[in-house]
Amino acid sequence: EQFVRMTADAALQYGCWGAPVCTPNPCQNGGACEDLFDLHQCMCLSEWTGSLCQNPTDYCNSSPCIFGNCTSLPEGFRCECDPG
């Protein structure tokens, strides 16, 4: 913890400091770490999910292919429909 220091020869310092929760960066796969005092939150790239950006996004989870089979790809998904 750090509190206001009032002396003539020192720079003004105030507030409390938490642990450096983003050093080193706990987020994987290019995720950005946001320091929330003593907690962190990973901001994942669109193709990754999970608390540490450790899981690939399953673009087929929302069932976007109404009458076809969905294949999840790194950049999105592909629908494959039966002929006819």
Automatic annotation (TrEMBL):
Classification via PROSITE patterns: EGF_1, EGF_3
Gene3D superfamilies for this protein: Laminin
GO cellular component: cytoplasm; extracellular region
Domain EGF-like: 18-54
Subcellular location field: Cytoplasm; Secreted
InterPro entries per the UniProt record, alphabetical: EGF
Keywords: Calcium, Cytoplasm, Disulfide bond, EGF-like domain, Glycoprotein, Repeat, Secreted, Signal
Disulfide bonds: C44-C53
GO aspect biological process, one term: Notch signaling pathway
Coiled coil: none
GO molecular function terms listed in the Swiss-Prot or TrEMBL record: Notch binding
Record-linked PANTHER family: CYTOCHROME C OXIDASE POLYPEPTIDE VIC-2, UNINFLATABLE, ISOFORM C
Protein name: Crumbs homolog 1
Organism in which the protein naturally occurs: Nothobranchius rachovii
